[in-house]
Amino acid sequence: MTRMAVGPGRRLLAPVGALAGVGAAFTLVALVDPNHPGHYPVCPLYGFTGIYCPGCGGLRCAHAVASGKLGTALHDNALAVVGFAAFAVFWVYWVLRARKGLPTAVRLAPKWWWAIGVAAAAFTVVRNLPFGGFMAP
Asked: DSSP label at 43?
């Protein structure tokens, strides 16, 4: 069985599609301000317990990023800013590898997944403690 060659245009469909989806989401959040109540649902964890989850403030953060206000974005959800930056880096990696026809999978060792989980848990705990109020959205 022979494999058909796939052109660079077809190889870039997935990363370009992913970027279009992310761009559409950021455009929506830029146009519909989450700082005004009633546009988006309340976080269920926060709504029931008053505890900020790792994602709380993420929409306000995305709105601030889309508006070019990095300081506000970091205050609203610093973990999300790191996530946005990580997506940008991995997206560039994805495009560069796809253009060359190389495998694009990124495999992280379990220790890195554990590190990400511990960082998210620590972020969640600290932002809910009195001394971590500066990290609360």
From this structure: P
Q: Which residue has the higher pLDDT, 57 or 132?
A: 57
Residues 117, 22: Cα–Cα separation, whole Å: 23
User: Is 111 within 8 Å of 119 (Cβ atoms)?
Assistant: no
CA 42 to chain centre: 18
pLDDT band at 3 (very low <50, low <70, confident <90, very high): low
Question: How many Å apart are CA 124 and CA 49, to the nearest integer?
Answer: 14
Terminal C-alpha separation, the chain: 56
CA angle, 19 then 20 then 21, to 5° = 90
Give the whole-angstrom CA distance, residue 19 versus residue 14: 9
**Closest by Cα among 39, 85, 91 to 60:** 39
Nearest residue to 82 via CA among 95, 96, 70: 70
**Statement: residue 137 has pLDDT above 90:** no
Q: Which class for 40: exposed (0-12), middle (13-18), buried (19 or more C-beta within 10 A)?
A: middle
Q: Phi, psi at residue 122, to the nearest 5°? A: -65, -45
